[in-house]
Fold this sequence. Notes:
- With 457 residues, the chain is of the alpha/beta class.
- It folds into two domains: 3-255, Putative sugar-binding, N-terminal domain (Rossmann fold, 3-Layer(aba) Sandwich); 275-452, Four-carbon acid sugar kinase, nucleotide binding domain (Molybdenum Cofactor Biosythetic Enzyme, Chain A, 3-Layer(aba) Sandwich), CATH 3.40.980.
- It is built from 16 helices and 18 strands.
- The longest helix is centred in the last third of the chain and has 22 residues, at 360-381.
- The radius of gyration is 21 Å and the shape is globular.
- The mean pLDDT is 93.
Amino acid sequence: MTDALALPGGLLLAFYGDDFTGSTDTMEVMAFAGLPIVLFLEDPTPERMARFPDARAVGIAGVSRSRDPAWMEANLPGRFEALARLGAPVLQYKVCSTFDSAPHVGSIGKAVDLGVQHAPGRFTPMVVGAPRLRRFQAFGNLFATLDDVGYRLDRHPTMARHPVTPMGEADLAIHLSRQTQRRIELVHLVQLKQGRGADRLAGLAGDDVPVVLIDVLDDETLAEAGRLVWENRGEGLFTASSSGLQYALVAYWRGCGALAPETAARPASAVDRIAVVSGSCSPATQAQIGWASEHGFDAIRLDAAAAVSGDVEREADRCTGLALAALGQGRDPLVFSALGPADPSLATVAAAAERTGLDPAAANRRIGQALASVMRTLLERTGLTRVAVAGGDTSGDVASSLGLMALTALAPLAPGSPLCAAWSDDPSRPPLEVALKGGQVGSASFFGAVKAGAPLT
């Protein structure tokens, strides 16, 4: 490695994650590439930062994906400012690789408008595609695979019917234009493959700080996207990107010799028992609950409509009792709120929300509160040392309720969902390992992998 190719010392990147599972996904990419990273669930104060002196990246796991623009205006500037003070050359608002967002909730456009004020760059790159996660962007359109079948995102079986942010447009420029008045441009895959990306980018930058989408379709365009961002970071860039940005930077750094080639990460040890809560309604999670039910887990359905109607504590207590009984019988409890996007309970929940006067996001938060209460009580009453949570918003609800301060990656389980060590401000707190899983993430045996500490073959 030459000095010209060496990475600078100190922090390379700081990010705010719009949900918890996406934040652990981002952490995984860098940690298992040999770049120590810490994901804070609380503000990264100097005292907390001092516990992680070797960190090359820092993140804050947030919940903005389920919040409205007014909440963003009140909460994001302070988080962006705190991260900007750390001095990393890239400041990221981490978005989901399925671009979950809408003008009224989880607005990525609003986050961009707030974030660009905290970096001096004359453009704000946006890298969303992540081939390892089976997400692909071509000519500005986002695609994802499910069961090895590729779908334009507005025709994806799950994302087109998402209960809070259904994807009605796969062209990200069009989708984003409904959330911001900012100029939106594109560096497309042909320009990247022909080596014209840098010239195109230079011609797009301006004092108005446009969003510049960068296509990612394969390993070549992934590394080129990383090069464009890193070599044009200047005095600092703000970017709203998925973990595709981390994959792109790592691919570029490895390609130019600044980072060691990929090596296999070590698995974790197995444990006797785990507990799982799931607020996801994706087909992937449905398959995982089905697998778990056939392999020693006790699947317990949360009455989500009852929780939405206001019986959060009562419903949580009922499920907790069943989960404790399962543990007493030598089984692993798995408390879930839905089985896939066609589960009839979703219509019942929607009707309950309408009767109660709640919007979908608020209704989902009540479900998350119930699941969080179950998990918190299980940890208080048992000796469990490892747990799993499915669903991005649910993961935020659970992690917040447990009073965790930070997470660091321990072992890979599935792309986008590592097993993590949980850190607390209280040094006397018992050790805890957590796996936070997005709805679309993982094979059918994922919950078995959590228990085993490694992917199952």
